[in-house]
Specification:
Blueprint lengths: L5 H6 L6 H28 L7 H9 L6 H35 L11 H14 L6 H24 L9 H24 L2 H11 L8 H18 L3 H7 L3 H6 L4 H23 L5 H13 L3 H25 L8 H18 L6
């Protein structure tokens, strides 16, 4: 039983002792908590008009008269901050799950077809069922992501005699299904200009313009997905060793992948449905955390709950001030800022698989 875990130690010869590693994790957790607190504060204070901390505190907790500034706090900045916290946590953890399940360092919910499935469902909701509110988009987006996951799993398992699906087959099936669904979306949009106008606002990922009812709808699914995901640490650590080795430790890779996949669908589907397809957060968060703490998923998953919202909130705040008085959606900021950062991460030698 002691010979099995030797493989990761060979892959990381300079691995620190357990005590030093725990100290690194604690330091990373403290840094992320401070970063998240700073991001939330910036989200409430910074925008087209800067607000004083006392003004924000009075609007949230005071009993004074309603003013234009208090309405900005309660009706604009508070809802987008709460939604960014939920969507960021969901996307960050979903990224850890996707990369751990597929053992693919560039995997994310989008690669597995979940974002495209959600987008197609929203298009059908607008074009066929006449849905015209973000509240309605949430349910269609969530249903679409779930169905896409079922289709991807079915396509990846076609022709296989075993019950398990290889990570490569899962990633390839996800890319193929995403391409096919994307073509269907294009056909719908090109043949219906009115549908395109309604869809394009949702399609550019953003946490702006959503009220607290969207966050209230998303919260139960995000909480359930996070609770399930936090049970996946040991499962993903076993899957990282390969299915055969995992079985030698008594694990059932198919069942483990199913549980983690359910959490992934809950998180990615809900975040995409509520805020639109936001790229890069699920891709970058796992790499940044691995650089800070190492590859253990039991550490990565809870820290992603802190790192994902911080990244999304900072992107949203940056989008508010980069081209005043207009705003750039958070999904655009994460893509523009994230691509060069991800290239830098990939080129580093400590790119961890």
């Amino acid at each position: 039983m002691t010979a099995g875990p030797a493989a990761p130690a060979v892959a990381e010869p300079d691995a620190p002792p357990a005590a030093a590693r725990r100290a690194r994790v604690r330091r990373a957790a403290v840094v992320l908590v401070v970063l998240l607190a700073g991001s939330v504060t910036a989200s409430m204070l910074v925008g087209a008009g800067m607000l004083a901390p006392a003004t924000v505190a009075d609007a949230l907790f005071g009993d004074g008269p309603v003013t234009p500034e208090s309405l900005v706090v309660t009706d604009v900045r508070l809802p987008r901050t709460v939604l960014a916290l939920l969507a960021g946590a969901a996307l960050g953890v979903a990224g850890v799950l996707a990369q751990g399940m597929t053992r693919n360092p560039i995997a994310e919910p989008g690669l597995l077809g979940l974002n495209t499935g959600a987008a197609l469902a929203v298009v059908l909701g607008i074009g066929v069922f006449g849905v015209s509110t973000l509240t309605g988009y949430v349910w269609f987006g969530f249903l679409g992501a779930a169905l896409a996951a079922v289709v991807v799993g079915g396509v990846a398992g076609v022709g296989r005699s075993s019950r398990t699906v290889s990570p490569a087959a899962l990633a390839l099936a996800g890319a193929a299904v995403a391409a096919g669904l994307g073509s269907v979306i294009t056909v719908f949009l090109l043949t219906n200009p009115t549908l395109f106008d309604d869809y394009r606002f949702w399609q550019v990922g953003s946490v702006a313009g959503r009220d607290l009812s969207i966050a209230a709808q998303a919260a139960p699914f995000v909480v359930a997905g996070l609770a399930l995901a936090l049970t996946c640490g040991q499962r993903l650590d076993a899957l990282a060793l390969g299915d055969d080795v995992a079985r030698s430790f008594g694990r059932r890779p198919g069942a483990d992948r199913l549980v983690c996949g359910l959490a992934l669908v809950l998180l990615a589907g809900t975040a995409t449905a509520a805020a639109g397809p936001i790229a890069f957060v699920g891709l970058a968060v796992p790499h940044v955390l691995r650089a800070l703490t190492g590859p253990g998923h039991r550490t990565l998953l809870p820290l992603a709950v802190l790192a994902g919202p911080s990244l999304l909130l900072l992107a949203d705040v940056l989008g508010r001030v980069v081209v005043p008085p207009a705003e750039v959606q958070a999904g655009v900021v994460t893509a523009v800022v994230g691509v060069p950062l991800f290239v830098a991460l990939v080129r580093r030698r400590k790119f961890v698989r």
